[in-house]
Amino acid sequence: MVFKLIARLIVFPLLLLAPPLFGAVFQGAPLMAFIKFPPSPAAIAASGFSWPVFLGVAGITFVALFPFARRLADDDIHARTRASSRRALPWWGMLGMGVMVVAWVFAWTRFSWFEPLQDHTFTPLWLGYILLVNALCYRRTGRCLLLDAPVFFVALFPLSAYFWWLFEYLNQFGGNWYYVDSPVITPLEQFIVGSVSFSTVLPAVLSTTQWLASFLRLQRAFTGLNPLRVTPMRALLTGGLFLSLLGLVMLGTHPRYAFPALWISPLFILSSMSSGESDVLSRLSRGDWRPIGLPALAALICGLLWEMWNYRSLAHWEYAVPFVQRFHLFHMPLAGYAAYLPFGAVCYLFMRLFDDKARLSCVLQPMHSGV
Predict the structure, then answer these.
(1) Helix, strand, coil shares, percent, the chain, to 5
(2) H helices of 76-121, where?
(3) Residues 6+ apart with CB under 8 A from 130
(4) Which of 98, 198, 244, 292 has the lowest tally of Cβ within 10 angstroms?
(5) How far apart are CA 162 and CA 195, in angstroms?
(6) 263 close to 171: Cβ distance less than 8 angstroms
(7) Is the pTM of this model over 0.90?
(8) 3-class SS at 147?
(9) CA separation (Å) from 123 to 49, 83, 120, 127?
(10) Which residues pair with 316 in a beta bridge?
(11) What is the b/e burial string over 307-319, where b = at least 16 CB atoms within 10 angstroms of the residue's CB?
(12) For 182-215, what is each residue's pLDDT tens digit?
C-alpha cells in the first residue's frame, strides 16, 4: 500500500507536468526557465476580451449546472424533514470564527505596528474558516472530518501544499495569475511561506463539501439523475485522458489558447487513474453525481471567499486570463469562476488516490439533520 501511494505521488505529477514542458521545449523555450523552484508565472501579456468566448463559457457552465439546478428547484424535493439538530456550536468552532474575523480585519487594514506580519494573514484566515466549517457540520450532523478522521485530516495539509505547487508549476506556462506586493524573500523562504499557505486548500474544500452534504436538498439535487453507462464512460475517460495530455502539450506551445487545460486536464487524468478501484464511476452509473457536484459547489464557495479575502489584502494575486478579462468580481474576471467547478472535483479525486480506508465516504454521506 505504501508503495502504491508513493507511485501515485510520482505518476500523477509526471502525467501533469511533463507534457507542457515538452511542448515549451519543442517550441524552443529554454528548459531551465521551467524547472526552477519555486516556480514563477510567465510574463503577463495583454489578455483582451472576446464576446464569443465569454458567452461560450457562460453557455457551457449553464448547460453543466442546469440539471442540478432544476433538481434543486423541483417541488418533489421540498418535502419537509425533521428539524435541524439543536447542538450548540462547539467551542473550537467559536475559536475558528474568532480567528477568521480577526485575521480578516488585519488582512484588510494597514496598522503600522502590524506591518511585519501584514503579508501573512492568509493562513490564519483559512485555518479559522476550516475550524468553523467543521464545527458547522458537527452542529448539524454530529460528524466532521476533524473529529471522524483526525489523522487523515492532518495529512490533508501537507498533501494540499504538494497539490497546489503542481498548479503553480502549470501557471508558469499559462501565466493566468500573478502575485502583487509579495515580500522579497529567498527561494527557500518562498517555498516555506507558500507551502504553509497552500496547505489550507484541500482541507477547506473537503470540509466545505462535507458541510454541504449535510443538507438533504443538496444530496437529492445530485442524485436520482439519468445514469451514465460505465462502459462508454471508461471509453470517454480514455479519450479524455488523451485530449488532456494533448491540451497540456499545447499549454506549453500555445498557452493563450490552451489555458483551460490547466483546470480540465487534471480532472481527466485523475479520473483515469482512479477509475479502476474508485466508486465514482459506479455512483455515476446510478445517477449519483455527488462525488463531482458537491466538491464542485464547495470549491466555488471557497473560491468566492478566496477572491473576496484576497481583494484588499496587501500581498495578493491578480489575473490575466485570455479572452475573458472583463466583468470582474473582486480581482477575478467573472468567467474565471467557472474554473472552480472542475477544480473542486479535482480536489476530491486527488484525495481519493490516497484514501485506502474510504475515509472520504463521510464527506459525501454525513448524517443529515435538516433541509
Answers:
(1) 70, 5, 25
(2) 91-108
(3) 96, 200, 203, 204, 207
(4) 98
(5) 8
(6) no
(7) yes
(8) helix
(9) 33, 35, 7, 6
(10) 180
(11) bebbbebbbbbeb
(12) 888 898 999 999 999 999 999 999 999 999 999 9
